[in-house]
Amino acid sequence: MGEKMKLYGFNNLTKALSFNIYDVCYAKTAREQKDYIAYIDEQYNSERLTGILTNLTDMIGAQVLHVSQQDYEPQGASVTLLIAEGSMIPAGSTQVAHLDKSHVTVHTYPEYHPETCLATFRVDIDVATCGEITPLSTLDYLIGSFDSDIITMDYRVRGFTRSVNGRKLFMDHKITSIQDYIAAETLQRYDAVDINVYEANLFHTKMMLKEIDLQNYLFNTDIYELPPKKRLDIMNSLRREMIEVFSGRNIY
């Protein structure tokens, strides 16, 4: 893939990135848990999420064709952007139908459980592009846009395109791991695991934050208000929650 291959017609490869984060918080009372949900809803409302996705679209060199956004009751928000490669100008029914394959979506899922004193904020972002653009270059931006304690990423390249001589091309860029597209200083903060199926052009990476600064996980509570044993109990509770989410199963 060293030199750029000349293609016959449009690049028909579809590149899909699924980016999922969890943010865990300790809120000791039912009132604080509800206040946390309200805080998250305000911090990550559909207007702000639209700004994040618009920046992402600019970063991959695409253009926004249409925006649909919604805030939900009692909580959560969704945004969908229809996008196209920057070089394409929408014109005619055929091209519009073709551009339907390029989009960016985000959904938020705040939740809490009154018995555990833990509240969790989940964000799902899906980016599907066709053509030469790929969303992998935006990973550091996405990780930095949220309080990302646990991150799960799936990337898949589907379909094929053809060179001018008719040879099929199933991948148009080099990739051995999603981690190749994440800055080293970001990776140093996380434990990361890969599951890659190269024959299927399917790449999976999940990451969990290594260090916990307890104050950052306390909602409306100062760490110095808590006795040492309580701090340790909360730390253990947070770490157990993160390990179970990272593992995708109940362990404790």
With strands numbered from the N-terminus, the spatial order across the biggest sheet is 2-3-4-5-1-6-10-9
Radius of gyration: 21 Å
* Percent range of helical residues: 25-40%
How many helices does DSSP assign? Answer: 6
Question: Could you describe the 3D structure shown?
Answer:
With 252 residues, the chain is α+β, with helices and mostly antiparallel strands. 26% of the residues lie in helices and 34% in strands. The longest helix is centred in the C-terminal third of the chain and has 20 residues, at 228-247. The protein is globular and about 70 Å long. The termini are far apart. Keywords: Autocatalytic cleavage, Decarboxylase, Lyase, Polyamine biosynthesis, Pyruvate, S-adenosyl-L-methionine, Schiff base, Spermidine biosynthesis, Zymogen.
Index terms:
252 residues, alpha+beta, 8-stranded antiparallel beta sheet, two-stranded antiparallel sheet, 10 strands, globular, autocatalytic cleavage, lyase, pyruvate, S-AdoMet_deCO2ase_bac, zymogen
How are the SSEs ordered, and which strands pair?
Layout lengths: L13 E13 L3 H14 L2 H14 L2 E10 L5 E9 L7 H7 L3 E11 L4 E13 L8 H7 L4 E9 L2 E2 L5 E2 L14 H4 L2 E8 L4 E8 L18 H20 L5
Antiparallel strand pairs: 1-5, 1-6, 2-3, 3-4, 4-5, 6-10, 7-8, 9-10
Tell me briefly what this model is.
The chain is of the alpha+beta class and 252 residues long. It has six helices and ten strands. Strands 2-3-4-5-1-6-10-9 form an eight-stranded antiparallel β-sheet. The protein has a two-stranded antiparallel ribbon with strand order 7-8.
